[in-house]
C-alpha cells in the first residue's frame, strides 16, 4: 500500500511512462494515491503488464495501459477518452513523451524533424486539448509538460528538439493564462541530464566510440554544463510532479521549473 494518499481517488495519464523519467512520474503519482494510465510503445507487452500489476499492488491503485500513436491526433483523443472512461475522471495529464535526433540543420532529415515536432510538441497540444474539457467539468485539473533544460537554453545539433521544447514552454504559459480562473494549473518541468537507462546507454556508447573511460564521458561530456556534477534523480522529478498536483500547488502555474543541477543558472 502507498505511504501517502494526498491524491487518493484522482486519475492521471502520463505519456511516455514505460521507462525513465515518465515511469518515475507514474510511480510517484500512484504512490500518492492516483489511478494511472501508463503509455508507451509496447516492445514487450508482457513486461509492461507486469510492471502495471506491480505498481497497482504496491500502491493500491488501478493501472491501465495505452500504446497510442502520438503522431495520430485521433489516437491521442482516444487515449484521453479511454483514461476518463476507465476511472470516471481525469484530473492530471503529464505530457512527457519525447524522442531525439542529433544532426546539423543542413543535414537534418525532414522526417526526423517532423517526428520530433510531432511527438514532443504537437502531441502535447492534442492531449491537452482533449483533457481540458474533463478538467473544466470537474472544476480541477493539473497539466504538467516535460520541457527539458532545452526548453530554456539551446544546444547545437538538436534543432528539432530545441524548437519543440521551446514551443512546449510557450504553450505551457499560454494555456496557463487561458485556464487561470478555472482551478486548473499548467506547468512545465525542465530536467537536466537524468540518471535513466537511456542516458546510461548513451554514456556507454560514447565511451566506446571515443575510446575513453566512462568516468570521462560523465564528467567531460554529459555533466560538463551541470554545475552540481551529478545526474538528476528520476524520483526527484516524480516528487516535483506530485507537489505540483498537491494541496499547496494552486499558485504554481505558467511556470517552467528547472530541475537541472544548476544548468540554466549560468
UniProtKB/TrEMBL annotation:
One of its GO terms (molecular function) is 3-hydroxybutyrate dehydrogenase activity. Its EC number is 1.1.1.100. Pathway: Lipid metabolism; fatty acid biosynthesis. Gene3D superfamilies: NAD(P)-binding Rossmann-like Domain. GO terms for biological process: monocarboxylic acid metabolic process. SUPFAM superfamilies: NAD(P)-binding Rossmann-fold domains. InterPro entries: 3-OHbutyrate_DH, NAD(P)-bd_dom_sf, Sc_DH/Rdtase_CS, SDR, SDR_fam. It catalyses: a (3R)-hydroxyacyl-[ACP] + NADP(+) = a 3-oxoacyl-[ACP] + NADPH + H(+). It holds the Pfam family adh_short. Belongs to the short-chain dehydrogenases/reductases (SDR) family. PANTHER family: 3-OXOACYL-(ACYL-CARRIER-PROTEIN) REDUCTASE (PTHR42879), 3-OXOACYL-[ACYL-CARRIER-PROTEIN] REDUCTASE FABG (PTHR42879:SF2). This is 3-oxoacyl-[acyl-carrier-protein] reductase. It comes from Astrephomene gubernaculifera.
Amino acid at each position: 500500500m502507498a505511504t501517502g494518499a494526498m491524491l487518493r481517488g484522482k486519475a492521471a495519464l502520463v505519456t511516455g511512462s514505460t521507462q525513465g523519467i515518465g515511469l518515475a512520474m507514474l510511480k510517484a503519482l500512484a504512490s500518492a494515491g492516483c489511478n494511472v494510465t501508463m503509455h508507451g510503445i509496447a516492445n514487450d507487452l508482457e513486461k509492461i503488464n507486469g510492471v502495471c500489476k506491480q505498481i497497482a499492488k504496491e500502491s493500491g491503485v488501478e493501472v491501465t495501459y495505452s500504446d497510442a500513436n502520438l503522431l495520430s491526433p485521433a489516437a491521442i483523443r482516444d487515449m484521453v477518452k479511454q483514461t476518463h472512461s476507465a476511472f470516471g475522471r481525469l484530473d492530471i495529464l503529464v505530457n512527457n513523451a519525447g524522442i531525439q535526433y542529433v544532426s546539423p540543420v543542413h543535414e537534418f532529415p525532414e522526417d526526423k524533424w517532423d517526428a520530433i515536432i510531432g511527438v514532443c510538441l504537437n502531441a502535447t497540444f492534442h492531449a491537452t486539448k482533449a483533457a481540458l474539457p474533463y478538467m473544466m467539468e470537474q472544476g480541477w485539473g493539473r497539466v504538467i509538460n516535460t520541457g527539458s533544460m532545452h526548453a530554456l537554453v539551446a544546444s547545437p545539433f538538436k534543432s528539432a528538439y530545441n524548437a519543440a521544447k521551446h514551443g512546449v514552454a510557450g504553450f505551457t504559459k499560454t494555456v496557463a493564462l487561458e485556464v487561470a480562473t478555472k482551478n486548473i494549473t499548467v506547468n512545465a518541468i525542465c530536467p537536466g541530464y537524468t540518471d535513466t537507462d537511456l542516458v546510461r546507454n548513451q554514456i556507454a556508447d560514447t565511451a566506446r566510440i571515443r575510446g575513453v573511460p566512462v568516468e570521462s564521458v560523465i564528467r567531460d561530456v554529459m555533466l560538463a554544463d551541470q554545475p552540481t556534477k551529478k545526474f538528476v534523480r528520476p524520483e526527484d522529478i516524480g516528487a516535483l510532479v506530485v507537489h505540483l498536483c498537491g494541496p499547496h500547488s494552486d499558485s504554481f502555474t505558467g511556470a517552467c521549473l528547472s530541475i537541472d543541477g544548476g544548468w540554466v543558472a549560468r
